[in-house]
Every structure is written in structure tokens, then in C-alpha cells.
Write a structure and sequence with these properties.
RibDG_C; 18% helix; Dihydrofolate reductase family protein; single chain; alpha/beta; DHFR-like_dom_sf; Riboflavin_Biosynth_HTPR
């Protein structure tokens, strides 16, 4: 069965973006960059792929990407219909009619849990990438199989958390994880993989 993997950059204090949703403070330069491009070539946005020599590079880990409206809006604000035209992309929003569309891009108000369960049940394909944001991760917390984090040597103090506050509802259970591996880079970035341990 396909897995849902939350693969995202995060600060040391657990934020994936600042309070306004910006994430351009995460360092792109450094020895972690080439490693990420080599291991996750499909995570490079479509408008950068050709200049990095990735135009013909097939996906290695993911063939489908999921995101909330705010994450997708970054591409829209750049004049793009899709940030990841080389992947099957789902954008979850309560206002699907005011976003541009293109082939391979599904903009939907459907329940994300139902969509993920359907995608997981597909008989073939690579894994599913949850790339943001924190509110969508909160909604999908029971469906997340792995966290793969690019932990950056930054402290924000405030912003959009890795998992939105809705997950902390009364009676919510913890999500126990086991670290499968980690790698430290000279840039100060640490890449770490966590899987559900129960």
C-alpha cells in the first residue's frame, strides 16, 4: 500500500513558515541542497527543474503531492497554475472555483482523509507527498505514515506549526514515532526520518 509521507522543512522550534506563511528564510545554499535534489528530484518545483537539469528526471519517491490552499497560493502568486506539474497534485480548499486549473491538478473541497484513503488503496504507484501546510497535516494526522523532516538551524518563535493546533483537541492521542535515520550536513541542516512506532 502507498504511504502518506509528510516531507517538509521545519525550524528547530517546530515551524514550517512564519505567521504570514512565508518560508523563504530556509537556506537553499549548502551541502544539504545537492543531496535533496538527488534524493527527492520531484520535490523541486516545476519552474526550476529545467535550469537544474531535472526536466527529464523521473520521480524517485513520490508521484502525487497534496497541499492546502495557502501552500498552493505561493505558486499562483508567481503566475503558475501548479507548482508541481510533473506530479499528480491535489489542492484542498473550500473555494475551488477561484483557482486556475490544468491537467494533473485537482482542486477540491472534498474531505482530505477520504482522498488519501482512496490514493493509498491504489494498486500501483509511488508514495504520496504531504508538502503542507500545518492545518492539512492536522486533518490528516491519523493517515500520516512517516515524517521526513529537513530540520533547519533557525528559531522563529512564532509561525505556522508543523502540525496545526486542531490536532491537540481534547482526548487526542499522541503520535508515537521511531527515528529510522538521520543525516547531519555542514550547513547545519539535519535530515531525519520518523515512522509510526505503534
Amino acid at each position: 500500500m502507498r504511504k502518506l509521507i509528510y516531507y517538509v522543512a521545519v525550524t528547530l522550534d517546530g515551524y514550517i513558515a512564519d505567521p504570514d506563511g512565508a518560508f523563504d528564510f530556509f537556506p537553499l545554499e549548502g551541502d544539504h541542497g545537492p543531496w535533496i535534489v538527488e534524493n527527492y528530484p520531484e520535490s523541486v518545483p516545476g519552474h526550476f527543474r529545467e535550469q537544474l537539469g531535472l526536466a527529464e528526471t523521473p520521480p524517485r519517491v513520490f508521484d502525487t503531492v497534496l497541499m492546502g490552499r495557502a501552500t498552493h497560493q505561493v505558486a499562483v502568486d508567481e503566475g503558475l497554475s501548479s507548482g508541481y506539474p510533473h506530479l499528480r497534485q491535489y489542492v484542498f480548499t473550500s473555494r475551488p472555483d477561484d483557482l486556475p486549473t490544468q491537467e494533473g491538478l485537482t482542486i477540491t473541497p472534498e474531505d482530505p482523509v477520504a482522498v488519501v484513503r482512496r490514493l493509498k488503496a491504489e494498486q500501483s504507484g509511488l508514495d504520496i507527498w504531504l508538502c503542507g501546510g500545518g492545518a492539512l497535516a492536522s486533518t490528516l494526522i491519523d493517515e500520516i505514515d512517516e515524517l521526513r523532516l529537513k530540520i533547519n538551524p533557525l528559531v522563529l518563535g512564532d509561525g505556522i506549526p508543523l502540525i496545526g493546533a486542531a490536532a491537540a483537541k481534547p482526548g487526542a492521542s499522541a503520535m508515537p514515532l521511531a527515528r529510522r535515520m538521520s543525516r547531519e550536513f555542514e550547513s547545519g541542516v539535519t535530515y531525519a526520518e520518523y515512522v509510526r512506532s505503534a
